[in-house]
Amino acid sequence: MPVGTQATVKALTPGDLHAAGAQMILGNTYHLNLRPTAERIARLGGLHRFMAWDGPILTDSGGFQVFSMADLRDVDDDGVTFTSHLDGSTHRLTPERAMEIQALLGSDIAMAFDQLVDPGLPLAQVADAMQRTHRWAARSLAARGRPDQAVFGIVQGGVDAELRRASVAAIGALAFDGIAVGGLSVGESKVQMAATLDVVAEALADDPRPRYLMGVGSPADFFTAVERGIDLFDCVLPTRVARTGQVWTDAGRLNLRNAALMDDPAPIDADCACEACRNHSRAYVAHLFRARELLAYRLASVHNVTWTLELMRRLRVSLADGSFTELRGRIGEGFGRAP
Amino acid sequence: MPVGTQATVKALTPGDLHAAGAQMILGNTYHLNLRPTAERIARLGGLHRFMAWDGPILTDSGGFQVFSMADLRDVDDDGVTFTSHLDGSTHRLTPERAMEIQALLGSDIAMAFDQLVDPGLPLAQVADAMQRTHRWAARSLAARGRPDQAVFGIVQGGVDAELRRASVAAIGALAFDGIAVGGLSVGESKVQMAATLDVVAEALADDPRPRYLMGVGSPADFFTAVERGIDLFDCVLPTRVARTGQVWTDAGRLNLRNAALMDDPAPIDADCACEACRNHSRAYVAHLFRARELLAYRLASVHNVTWTLELMRRLRVSLADGSFTELRGRIGEGFGRAP
User: Which of A1, A201, A267, B94 has a Cα at 20 to 30 A from B262?
Assistant: First the structure.
């Protein structure tokens, strides 16, 4: 899922996203509720109409941003009080309010409200946050507001195998439509991420529900996680790095600020069918970055989103025809050896 | 002509420009020669291929920017020495070099190198610059480098009727493919601009060559100038004001930073067929501006370029069917009463 934090995947239109092969996109409850507000989006017909995206939308619950971006004022068992990163105004999120906001936005999949903690904290604190996440999961499910919206639960537990198993048991026992893995890609090592996904995969066993790894990741991460049974991803990385001039290709990363590219008539990736690669040379996009032209960010974003979604398509094909290891060797290792 | 200063009409792709109805676009010799340089663009196949625009391109000669943006070091009869606004490096432009650069860029229409002066300067200085412009015009024409490139001359003379008549006589006597009016929209009043265009129109009489008013203008200016026989315009205004949130509609200007628009489900202009108006509400684009999202600048630019080119189409129709005055009353006056 390309990430549309503020009701737009940065620099791209819905038409660009369809052309890139996007199936579902993500919206951020924390940001949208602060601006333009969930109530305003509801009055304007919901998030799909507001941003003119006619495909599925998953909204997160705001938990991740509250614990990573906002100025926290109070966390208790009922919910979280924080001040906005935009204007310092005070807000409160509870499982019930997070579900209400997502019902107002009208996303197709809502996420339970969870508590994120640094996996490097003492185990007792990680365990406390996990237990609270379980209580909030049940309340989120009970607060489900609309029958046309699926709800996914979130497994926490840091990088501790016992806690992760307990969390899968607790969340898996609830009537969620899908299971998400939270609390990864937040500072732990790649080896810890892979080991934790192994634990989760084993604990979920043959649970048939879709599995979503939140906030991940890089091309190498996709291989690590798909190999461990993950179905769904969201990540800002493709568009965020694009805006710095980093594009992803079958041969690895390419930095469009590299002076040598100013004279390179080849497209970013000769095998890519995106608008940037069909029409433009590396030399041109490199020029646009140097000239700080808005089109630079757009073309690099179009490419990275297209390339990433095409990688996911090839990953699906590789699982069906048994060529996963070959694909990982050919592409994944250009982005760093997988654990 | 939408303006593609640095080999891009800001925020837009060639596909956007075609969809907006663009026929010809403008590239800036001053900017392109500093970065990425005319020689590099020539090595990469010329400006059309470099920016992937398959329609006609007109390049200016760099004169306007040298006299308005650069740090001038020396102006003599041979040419101009200046330091780059980018890195302080020293450069020289002469009529011959301006034509060489434009031949390297491979534009369809090249402009003669001219000297711009503030029309408010003492008449003797305006006259001196005009005389030099005439000498440079002859040298530009003599330096014409390629048979597939048209060359337009530029009439100067400030806002003085005698000088303008003399300039039309001098430039009109040369074998240019078109006649441009320079030195307007640089601080003179709207009444002075209209009066100067009257003088030029009378002096050109039934000269059959296309007439191009450089660097103009606003919607109101188009009516003023078309009424006085102008065929061609270029202006950064549609995209420049778009990036500040100002969009143009049949009902006049609309400021997308106006808080009331945050709840307005209507499109920017219900009669406009651009991507922004087909798919998005004022509320959405207003939100994007407040959130400083890149898509804001793109959608507002798509709209203003589309609306402006559609206005020009309607102006052409109005000349054919006699409805010019009605069209000016209905639309032009929403942008300020014409002189």
Answer: A1
